[in-house]
Design brief:
GO molecular function, one term: methyltransferase activity
Structural class: alpha/beta
Oligomer: single chain
Number of domains: 1
Order of helices and strands: HHHHHEHEHEEHHEHEE
Protein name: Methyltransferase
CATH architecture: 3-Layer(aba) Sandwich
Strand order of the largest sheet: 3-2-1-4-5-7-6
Keywords: Methyltransferase, Signal, Transferase
Number of helices: 10
Amino acid sequence: MKSKLMMAAVAAIALSAGASAQAAPAPYVVAAVADKSRPEADTKRDADRKPAEMLQFAGVKPGQTVVDFLPGGGYFTRIFAKAVGPKGVVYAVYPPPRAPADPSKPTPTPGAVTIAADPAYANVKAVQATPASFAVPQKADLVWTSQNYHDLHNSKGLDLAAFNKAVYDALKPGGVYVVLDHAAAPGADVTSTLHRIDPAVVRREVEAAGFKFDGEDKTLANATDDHSKAVFDPALRGHTDQFVYKFRKPK
């Protein structure tokens, strides 16, 4: 079964290779995507989310320390964990859970906590923090955040400059900060309505913290998306035009 999953992952990656200028994903990345511990709900999304290409672009390697900021259900957390291997560590930084509207129901367990308790992901550590209190126990090789940055603009009272500086401080010299998000039209302020953000805004804000722009991956770009619809629109959901920016902390 494991070999079949591996073959399927390799085939999917090969089919998409022409859409990306970067080198083919490393074997340990392919193996991480094909890992049999991943939930079926996650693997069904691979064709849209291109996880192997994303890890290859981010430069994930065995033994690294990776921070998955606001990981949601842990789609990337699980893949990072297998890619960095037993000598690496993944910090899944999640916000305090919201109490349910119905007080008779229990507060849901955050995905990061569930994954960290799973023996298959023994190298995952769940860290509770708000964007304003972002910090991790050790310096990281990579801080990654997927489809979250626009919502930081919707956080009342959040000092985004301070947040990006905290990310900068959390990285080792030469470390990488990757921001993946839904693209908005140039100059559009639609973070709270369409849940998109102008890529130029992200670049300006992150570079202001001291980062150097280190490239863009266009694997998730979609030229048919005119940026006028909300990312949750059924006609577009899962296929929005997304940008993936890599920033590097100078050595």
